[in-house]
Structure to design on (805 residues):
């Protein structure tokens, strides 16, 4: 039997096999011969969860006894993906599990493939929260993640004749294996009603109530040293089923309270850049924020009786403005419910709270109509006015207010109620100071700090890229897994051919795997030695998937015109979801699919160019694509991508970046070296200037025949003969408006791509540059980012579970 020892708890594959069988039998009530794949998957998950719980309790106990400060990460989104492989790897039980399943006549890969993604997020913000939870555990920082247990996560994307179609996501269809239902942890939350004055005290008389019930998922660290809790709230009715109504035959009405209450945690809003201002969204934001603050105060008051100690015991991070109602709610809990003076309540709350901004896009900055805030949360609206007034008093000339044009600006409110505000890349943080928060920065010059994003190396290198990880561990040992900057130690080995050969082999085999998968899943035949050029992220104009597509069309035409010109074969891979209400983005999706169909059917260019748009992009698909990529497309209009995190995952996995000086691209290029990065395009300042040039798009089109040609083809319906005018919206926007400067950056982008063609032709040089990207990207670990938050924002210490001795 295969054994693995963690902290002395020897787990043999025989142990695991027995544990799997026990859970199948007694938890799932299934006989082995009757069990389906998903039964075995849940049984294995429960067997692993058993081991996680021991570490979890030990961590909780240690945190409780140490009286240490806890970190609370409040996020509307946690884009977790799958947890089975992650848990196995972090517990070091992969081999044992593989052997146990083989003994049971099962295949580990089939079991892993059966797990649905927990898609409780839209994109970057949600995935960052998931990486941060794993790193908080790995660095041993006592923490809770708080969010919503959506019944339906991010929609499933299907293509029907190339158009995006959304289908409800249903991860809870099967029993979720990792969570524990906490019926004993439930809070009554209120909405609406009015506020009366009673002896100088404000009293809120709400008219509606709902219950928030907790579901806990343990988040295990690397090597199972520590485990934290992800507590997700689910909405329940205060009063359940209305029997009287049922008996009166009003069946639907009888079920209404239940259905109405559950609406709050029913589904994730699929927008990731445009706030819809929907009442239900505000209800969701208050629901999880208020439940979390109640839970935080309950835990604090169980251990302390002096409220003034709260800022030393609780660091509450607001993941963007979505939980920003935490400011007024915390003041209400301290002042209205616990009698603290209002000013002191504001100061105490601010000392606990800190806020991360993830976007400068005006349409993404939440602004709630005052009348809606007043109707839904009348007491909070009063407190927001008090907070704003208190902020104004301290500022001689009243420049900044959280209230404007009858709206509550949640960014300003979060800033006012936070002791630290951070951006997510160096460039983004500077732009926060010079644009959206310029006034507030002038008033509070030391409040804004930078914390450049990071990604967890356990999921994004160790798990996703076994071949590369094995090579790294063989070369420098396993320390890199939780000390990623050790990757630098690889560089001395770049001299010996052996290392670079194995490095190239890992990439080659990953690409072969992906080619086979594309053949079976997409019925698309690609050349596994071609340059795998990958752009995977949410579809958005500022991310400029359409600029990539214009270059693809121009390249196709150039190859068709001169097929024997010694082209570097390319496979263009796209993946990403468009927000259902984002018409332009959905047109880009349709256009990419229609262009792909035409290009892939072209026998002349087939050996040199293939295009694939993979449906239903999610965490699991990213884990499959990133290790096989040669080129990482990070081509956003400079000043628009706050950071990016895909860029970091690609660099760590040895893909070279073609990118603008935007977000964390700037820091990636600084660390890997400008000679190992394909830079192009305008800087953020040049973008601002260029936008002032009248007719900047027409000028650029005039100056570049390839661009003009590609636009003309689209405009004439070359890719939509059934509806030639289908994309006039796209071509019209680009030719006359082009706010994201696709046309003005096109020529530089084209030239960068041709430089890349030439560079890729020299595989040894290319692989060396790729290996340098891996070796010099260790700083982009989310462990480093979390340690930055602990030191600069939370003032929190790491703990260790005391050894068995
Ligand atoms: C209100 C609708 C809404 C929902 C989500 C968001 C997110 C802030 C959008 C988002 O995911 N931003 C991304 O956050 C990443 C993590 O910091 C960054 O790396 C990306 O650059 C940023 O676009 C904005 C607006």
């Amino acid at each position: 039997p295969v054994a693995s020892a963690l902290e002395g708890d020897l787990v043999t594959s025989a142990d695991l096999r027995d544990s799997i069988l026990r859970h199948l039998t007694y938890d799932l009530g299934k006989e082995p011969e009757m069990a389906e794949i998903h039964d075995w998957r849940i049984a294995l998950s429960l067997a692993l969860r058993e081991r996680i719980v021991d570490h979890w309790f030990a961590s909780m106990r240690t945190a409780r006894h140490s009286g240490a400060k806890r970190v609370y990460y409040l996020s509307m989104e946690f884009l977790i993906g799958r947890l089975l492989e992650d848990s196995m790897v972090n517990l070091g039980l992969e081999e044992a599990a593989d052997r146990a399943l083989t003994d049971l006549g099962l295949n580990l890969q089939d079991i892993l493939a059966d797990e649905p993604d927990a898609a409780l997020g839209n994109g970057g913000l949600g995935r960052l929260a998931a990486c941060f939870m794993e790193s908080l555990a790995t660095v041993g920082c006592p923490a809770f993640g708080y969010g919503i247990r959506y019944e339906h996560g991010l929609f499933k994307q299907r293509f029907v004749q190339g158009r995006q179609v959304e289908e409800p996501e249903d991860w809870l269809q099967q029993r979720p294996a990792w969570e524990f239902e906490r019926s004993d942890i439930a809070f009554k939350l209120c909405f609406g009603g009015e506020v009366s004055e009673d002896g100088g005290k404000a009293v809120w008389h709400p008219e509606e109530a709902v219950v928030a019930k907790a579901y806990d998922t343990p988040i295990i660290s690397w090597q199972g040293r520590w485990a934290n809790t992800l507590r997700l709230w689910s909405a329940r009715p205060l009063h359940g089923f209305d029997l009287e109504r049922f008996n009166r035959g009003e069946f639907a009405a009888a079920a209404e309270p239940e259905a109405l209450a559950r609406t709050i945690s029913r589904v994730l809003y699929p927008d990731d850049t445009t706030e819809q201002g929907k009442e239900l969204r505000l209800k969701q934001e208050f629901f999880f924020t208020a439940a979390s603050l109640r839970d935080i105060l309950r835990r604090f008051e169980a251990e302390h009786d002096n409220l003034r100690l709260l800022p030393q015991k609780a660091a509450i991070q607001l993941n963007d403005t979505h939980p920003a109602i935490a400011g007024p709610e915390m003041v209400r809990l301290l002042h209205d419910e616990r009698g603290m003076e209002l000013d002191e309540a504001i100061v105490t709350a601010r000392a606990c709270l800190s806020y991360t901004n993830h976007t400068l896009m005006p349409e993404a900055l939440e602004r709630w109509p005052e009348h809606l805030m007043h109707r839904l949360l009348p007491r909070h609206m009063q407190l927001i006015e008090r907070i704003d007034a208190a902020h104004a008093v301290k500022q001689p000339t009243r420049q900044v207010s959280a209230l404007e044009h009858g709206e509550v600006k949640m960014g300003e409110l979060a800033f006012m109620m936070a002791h630290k505000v951070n951006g997510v890349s160096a460039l983004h943080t500077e732009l926060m100071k010079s644009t959206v928060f310029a006034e507030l920065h002038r008033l509070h010059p030391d409040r804004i700090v930078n914390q450049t994003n990071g990604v967890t190396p356990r999921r994004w290198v160790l798990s996703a890229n076994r071949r590369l990880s094995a090579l790294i561990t063989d070369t420098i040992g396993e320390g890199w897994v939780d000390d990623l900057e050790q990757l630098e130690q690889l560089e001395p080995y770049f001299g010996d051919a052996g290392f670079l050969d194995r490095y190239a082999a890992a990439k080659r085999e990953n690409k072969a795997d992906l080619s086979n998968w594309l053949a079976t899943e997409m019925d698309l035949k690609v050349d596994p030695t071609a340059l795998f050029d990958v752009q995977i992220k949410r579809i958005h104009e500022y991310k400029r998937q359409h600029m990539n597509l214009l270059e693809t069309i121009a390249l196709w035409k150039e190859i068709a015109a001169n097929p024997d010109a010694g082209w570097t074969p390319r496979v263009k891979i796209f993946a990403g979801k468009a927000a259902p209400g984002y018409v332009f983005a959905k047109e880009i999706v349709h256009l990419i699919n229609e262009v792909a169909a035409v290009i892939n059917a072209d026998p002349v260019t087939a050996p040199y160019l293939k295009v694939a748009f993979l449906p239903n992009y999610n965490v699991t698909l990213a884990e499959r694509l990133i290790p096989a990529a040669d080129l990482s497309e990070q081509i956003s209009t400079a000043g628009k991508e706050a950071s990016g995190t895909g860029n970091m995952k690609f660099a760590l996995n040895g893909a070279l970046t073609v990118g603008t000086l935007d977000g964390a691209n700037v820091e990636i290029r600084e660390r890997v070296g400008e000679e190992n990065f394909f830079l192009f395009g305008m800087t953020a300042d040049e973008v601002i200037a260029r936008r002032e040039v009248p007719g900047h798009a027409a000028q650029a089109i005039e100056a570049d025949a390839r661009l003009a040609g590609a636009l003309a083809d689209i405009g004439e319906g070359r890719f939509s003969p059934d509806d030639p005018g289908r994309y006039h919206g796209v071509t019209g926007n680009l030719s006359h408006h082009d706010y994201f400067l696709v046309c003005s950056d096109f020529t530089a982008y084209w030239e960068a791509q041709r430089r890349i063609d030439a560079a890729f032709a020299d595989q040894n040089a290319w692989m060396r540059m790729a290996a340098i990207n891996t070796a010099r990207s260790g700083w982009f670990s989310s462990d480093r980012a979390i340690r930055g938050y602990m030191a600069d924002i939370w003032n929190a210490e790491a703990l260790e579970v005391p050894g068995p001795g």
The pocket of 26W is lined by residues 122-125, 128, 271-273, 275, 320, 358-359, 364, 366, 424, 453, 641-645, 663 (CB under 6 Å). The longest helix spans residues 37-66. The radius of gyration is 27 Å. DSSP finds 32 helices and 26 strands in the chain.
